[in-house]
Amino acid sequence: MSKSKSISRSLGEFLGHIFRGVRTKVDDKGRVIPPEQVKRTEVRRTVEEEKQGEHVILRRTTIEEVEVRRSDAGSA
Predict the structure, then answer these.
(1) What CA–CA distance (Å, rounded) separates 63 from 33?
(2) What is the mean pLDDT of each run of 10 residues along the chain (76 residues)?
(3) Are 58 and 49 in contact (CB under 8 A)?
(4) Does residue 45 sit within a domain?
């Protein structure tokens, strides 16, 4: 007789599948884009920092990237 999974284990696996689906890149037709077909280049990074009082620092980081996707040979 096999031991059944706990509810915590099942819930963790379920959430893992959802997170993986949310993070997966897809093209306009809903096909998965493999990570090796996407090239990202960081163009600019800006960091603004402001000290407010003795214990608070407000920091804003802006990263601008260019993302180039390889096109399929057969697609138009």
Answers:
(1) 22
(2) 81 91 78 74 90 92 85 53
(3) yes
(4) yes
